[in-house]
Write a structure and sequence with these properties.
Blueprint lengths: L3 E6 L7 H14 L4 E6 L1 H5 L5 H17 L8 E4 L5 H10 L4 H5 L2 H12 L10 H4 L1 H10 L5 E4 L4 H18 L8 E4 L28 H9 L18 H9 L2 H13 L4 H27 L2 H30 L3
Helix pairs in contact: 3-13, 4-8, 4-14, 8-9, 10-13, 11-13
The structure holds tryptophan.
Tryptophan (TRP) binds next to strand 1, helix 8 and strand 4.
Length: 331
């Protein structure tokens, strides 16, 4: 039997090229070797996003984006967290096995407290219980599906370790392996994708290239990539240029070599390098953009896909909760 992998996608922003290489592509790859489950972590976003229109459209856009990016809903289980009420029942059960002190140690929570202290505000300012207990909800997401492996970014490893702690505390109390203890899997080799300003591409730096923007806007954004002041004639170093770093992600080995040679020979201005980059990015994202627009234009189909995923997920979730209710004496 294949091992079970599960990961959550928090819909908090427009998908960009960094998400594509850092999360979507590796996830599509992983689905080949694991019994893979992916869900839109919409209740996690509620902690941050309180505008209903914004939250609702982000959920749809992010779901459509992952489908356009190659996630095949017939091969994986792809659902919305909010469609699985068992997540919230399991969260309540897990709360009773989660030490408050464990939550105090969560990096994300501690960072918010630290920010408040630096701003000389009350240390709890702006921190809601959803944020504070976020690791319990995340543990429920994971443990509900008997997940063996949880592919995450480095920033989420601690949360997976908390899910381990919580599962072990519960198993220990009932002297029984009621919950599968999961492992985090951090992809070491995923490329760091540079943003328009050369720093890591990230929504919080406001330096992203959104995945599905129209061609003319894509071109404009690429033309805005920050470069140094070297003139056209000067030979240039490809490895220290973020245009070339981005180009490598999209181009074949031959294309990479050809552009690197143009850099080193001199006689190539930054405009020309940017144009070469635009060509390869656009070549790869055009079919994605078309799929994305087609999905967004057919809301009923998107709903059906997500419902079909929830229908596959719910019986699994119901089994886990029934097993636990029986074990804890609430049956
Ligand atoms: N916390 C994760 C993030 O911010 C999203 C997430 C929610 C998740 N539940 C999960 C990831 C369960 C893996 C497993 O990216």
């Amino acid at each position: 039997m294949k091992k079970i992998s599960l990961t959550g996608i928090k819909p908090t922003g427009q998908l960009h090229i960094g998400n594509y290489f850092g999360a979507i592509k590796p996830a599509v790859e992983l689905a080949k070797t694991y019994d893979a489950r992916y869900f839109i972590a919409d209740y996690h976003s509620l902690n941050l996003i309180k505008d209903p229109k914004q939250l609702s459209s982000l959920i749809r856009e992010v779901a459509a984006g992952w489908l356009a990016g190659g996630l095949n809903p017939d091969e994986v289980i792809f659902y919305r967290q909010s469609a699985i009420p068992e997540v919230f029942e399991l969260t309540t059960i897990l709360m009773a096995f989660t030490a408050k002190g464990l939550m105090n140690r969560a990096h994300a929570y501690k960072a918010s407290v630290q920010e408040n202290i630096e701003k000389q505000s009350d240390s709890d300012a702006g921190i809601n219980m959803g944020l504070y207990t976020y690791p319990v909800l995340m543990a429920a997401d994971i443990l509900l599906f008997d997940s063996n492996v949880v592919p995450v970014g480095r920033d989420q490893v601690q949360h997976v370790e908390m899910a381990q702690d919580i599962a072990q505390a519960l198993n220990f109390n009932y002297k029984k392996d009621l919950l599968v203890v999961p492992e985090a899997s951090v992809q070491e080799q995923v490329a760091v994708v540079p943003g328009l300003d050369g720093r890591k591409m990230s929504k919080s730096y406001n330096n992203t290239i959104p995945l599905f923007i129209p061609e003319n806007q894509l071109k404009k954004l690429i033309m805005r990539i920050v470069t140094n002041s070297q003139g056209v004639d000067e030979p240039k170093d490809p490895e220290s240029s973020q245009i070339y770093q981005l180009f490598k992600l999209f181009a074949s080995a031959d294309e990479q070599k050809a552009l690197a040679d143009r850099y080193r020979a001199g006689g190539m201005g930054w405009g020309e390098a940017k144009d070469a980059l635009f060509q390869v990015v656009n070549r790869e994202v055009t079919p994605l953009r078309e799929r994305f627009n087609a999905i967004m234009d057919d809301p009923k189909k998107l709903d059906d896909i997500l419902k079909q995923g929830a229908d596959k997920a719910r019986p699994i979730a119901a089994r886990t909760v029934a097993r636990l209710r029986k074990a804890i004496g609430i049956d």
